[in-house]
Amino acid sequence: MLSTLRNSVLWRFVEAQTITCTTLRIRGYQQQRRLNTTTRIFSEKYNIILMGSPGSGKSTVARILSKKLNKPSIDIDNDVLEPMWGKKISEKLKEKGSKAFIEEEGKALMTVKAENSIISLTGSNPLHDEAMRYIANTGYVIFLDYPAKGILQRLHKMKIDRIVGQEMGTPLTDILDHRQSTYEQAYDIRILCEEDESPESVSEKVVQALKVLEEDQGYVSTRQDVKSVSPHERTTLGEILLQGLAPDGGLYVPALQIPILTKGEWSRLVNVGYRDRALRIMEKLINPFDLHPSKLRLFIEKAYNSELFSDEKIFPVRHLQDNQFLLELFHGPTGSFKDGALQLMPQMFVDALRHSQPMNSSRYIILVATSGDTGGAVLDGFRRHAEGSGVGVIVLFPEDGISEVQRLQMTSMSGGNVQVLGIEGDFDLCQAMVKRAFQDQDLASWLAANGNFKLRYKNAANSITWGRLLPQIVFQVSAYLNLVEQKVISLGDEVDVCIPTGNFGNILGAFYAQAMGIPFRRLICASNTNNTLTEFINSGKYDIRSRQLQKTQSPAIDILKASNLERFIYHMSNRDHQLVRKCFKDLEENQCFEVTGQLLEDIQGLLVGKWCSEAECLQTIKKCFDKTGYLLDPHTAIAKFVADLVNDGDVPMIINATAHYSKFIPQVLQALGRKKDMKEKSVSELFEMAHKITEAPSMHSRLEECVKSASTCEKVLKPNYEDVEREIKIFSHKI
């Protein structure tokens, strides 16, 4: 409970710093406001402050909450302003005009001395920055986010045709839009109100939202009994981002159940942009004491914009054929679905580092071994959003084990906090180098003594960290809402989702989206020849004793141990931490585990597992191109092949297109039968060939720029650990 944070790391930070300040952007400039994280929500000291548009029912909700929570109710209009001014609000507004009225109203708000109260603000109070900072420091600001259509209807019934700030000739809708943008910068908790939702229902949502914060114990390991968590302990989002794996080897998940949105709440997200969807969904999943909505909004705006993503929808959904639709996840800077997480997660990681402990001077070097897309996305995200923060990234890749486009992409990255190292060896050797460095105590001591550096293994950046999963939940939700927006389906209709799957992270995002209330009928797991997941889904047995990793044309899913499967089994087994611990201990020690009975039935009732051979992958690329003119990358082709296998035509099918075809342009052109034309051609020339073949999808301009530019930071090492160790030490002096 929040009252127990006094003994937590977060409380010690607050004590040392006196207050926690969260940057709040109001009307284009920076303000500071306090977000108190140390006391009980329902304490006798702190106020609950209701904010929202005129007509949002704040006063009525406040009266209902007053009875529910046994707290006095203060209506700023009726209990403060009119008694102070001795006249009605409308008379004062007419007398002073909007600008002077807002100033006097703000000064009046700053005279309020209240504790343990429900305070209902006026609709225009948030327009006065100083007054809002004052009142916000007395408690928790709850934004009653009511639909504009409902607001207009209520104002019409109340016979109000003009509000503060509305000049002659200005439509009321424009004023409400302006108010919305102001409210968006000034709340701690948003209540997403439904069309025509009653004040009683809204008040209950407020109570439940406050109760969630009161009871939230942060995050627990999949191998930990949630009931055993001490009420004096709360693991924060920042802590788990910095840790990666839990100390017991498990993966972190929220201690509370995944929140469920109602159909009416989802309807509020249909006709809004991707950034707004992301904010509203992630607000439900992140405690504001861990990451305040105002800061989260800034991170999202920096992560998803037209400078980084080539499509205004960020992750658009387009019709492919029949009942199949492609979720295009490759419009980001590196042409991979991983951009969705790795343009946001580095910002969250840096923020966590800055607030991890009092006067923390530690710096971090994240080591990553990559066989393809992860390296480019990690490098791009951290160089854009973490330079100058004390966080650096070193990526090791097999010199001859990735595509030429992937190599050019990584080696053309520039930035003082990123380094790319090619290794004369395979991916397993790169992985072994990273693990050895992480376990090297002499290196750790040297780094600590020479700059107070700490090494972080790749789990700080790959899909096992919760910070990678959060954005993946968002784009799976958004895909469904896009189909509703396009009127392909009605809200509430079921759809299937087919995802090329390796580490089980992307399909886990769809699982969490379903848990939040998105009606995904089936989650279809598409594997290549490394089909351990398919075997597990169909038999209940996860057995890699006799398997060797096969190198395929879809390297991002060349994985035998699907790490995120642990989270899935944890949830499907009703949080049976003992079962999870046993399964993954058996996998580690014996390379095998098995689930049976009801758990297996439940898994098979949700997941469908099929796989695709190398030949079938190439055939699918050609077949799809011949029929639709659309060029698939090998990963998406795996999903398309499997989607065709299981498609019953009853509901729409969303296929995750996880990479742009140009990242694998030799394989794609070969699939189209252009092998003879490709002889002795450079990658740049292959791009030109592709230009002439299709514009579906359009060429990825950033990738095209990479292959045309010379590598700027390529360094290839012999397969010696000592050389890697030396480069880590040299790199540390650059951060």
General description of the model:
With 735 residues, the chain is of the alpha/beta class. Among the domains are: 2-215, Rossmann fold (3-Layer(aba) Sandwich), CATH 3.40.50.300; 299-335 and 468-562 and 606-708, Rossmann fold. The chain is 44% helix and 15% strand. It is built from 31 helices and 22 strands. A 6-stranded mixed sheet has the order 10-11-21-16-17-20, sandwiched between helices. A hairpin with a 2-residue loop joins β1 and β2 (29-34). α2 packs across α9, α15 packs across α16 (373-385) and α26 (614-628) packs across α28 (665-671). It is globular. The two termini are 39 Å apart. Residues 1-39 have low confidence and may be disordered.
Structure keywords:
735 residues, alpha/beta, Rossmann fold, six-stranded mixed sheet, five-stranded parallel sheet, 44% helix, globular
Question: What is the compact description of this entry?
Answer:
With 735 residues, this protein is of the alpha/beta class. The protein contains 31 helices and 22 strands. Among the domains are: 2-215, 3-Layer(aba) Sandwich (Rossmann fold), CATH 3.40.50; 299-335 and 468-562 and 606-708, Rossmann fold (3-Layer(aba) Sandwich), CATH 3.40.50.1100.
